[in-house]
Specification:
Layout (H helix, E strand, L loop, with lengths): L2 H15 L2 H22 L9 H24 L3 H15 L8 H15 L7 H12 L5 H13 L1
Helix pairs in contact: 1-2, 2-4, 3-4, 5-7, 6-7
């Protein structure tokens, strides 16, 4: 079952159970996917977006919520922090299991060694490789930080 179908099924289930938090979050996800579909149709491609692109949307939504949590912490808005955490939890149900920091570091080290990268200027090549091969399973912000550290040392 593709990701779009899973999201729609979960939405229907949440609607039947009257789970308001889940309904609202899933509605946000569905709207983001629909917007991306419309955007992609306006270009040369007339097909709806694929699972890989949906994963990118979901990761972006998680990142937005984490950024919001940081802002809410400075404003001492615990009610909004909890709301964002609930949304992250719901969104994460559709994302594959994330690799931990040590696993990400090993992947980056291997790639640096295989291609003999030595400069921070080559970081873009590493990030492109990670985005094309590990979308959905790697936190790109963490990967960028680790790549920079490894190339700088």
């Amino acid at each position: 079952m593709n990701l779009r179908t899973q999201i729609d099924e979960k939405y229907k289930s949440a609607f039947k159970l009257k789970n308001i938090d889940e309904i609202n979050t899933l509605r946000l996800i569905r709207n983001a996917i629909k917007n991306k579909d419309i955007e992609s149709r306006s270009s040369k491609n007339k097909n709806p977006i694929n699972d890989q692109q949906i994963l990118n949307i979901l990761q972006s939504m998680v990142k937005q919520r984490r950024d919001s949590i940081e802002s809410f912490k400075t404003a001492s808005r615990n009610d909004l922090i909890e709301k964002e955490k609930k949304e992250i939890k719901i969104i994460n149900t559709f994302l594959p299991q994330q690799l931990n920091e040590e696993e990400i570091k090993k992947i980056i080290e291997k790639y640096i060694k295989d291609f003999n990268f030595t400069s921070v200027k080559q970081m873009g090549l590493i990030m492109n490789h990670l985005k094309s091969n590990y979308t959905g399973v790697i936190d790109m912000a963490l990967a960028g930080k680790l790549a920079k550290e490894l190339l700088s040392s």
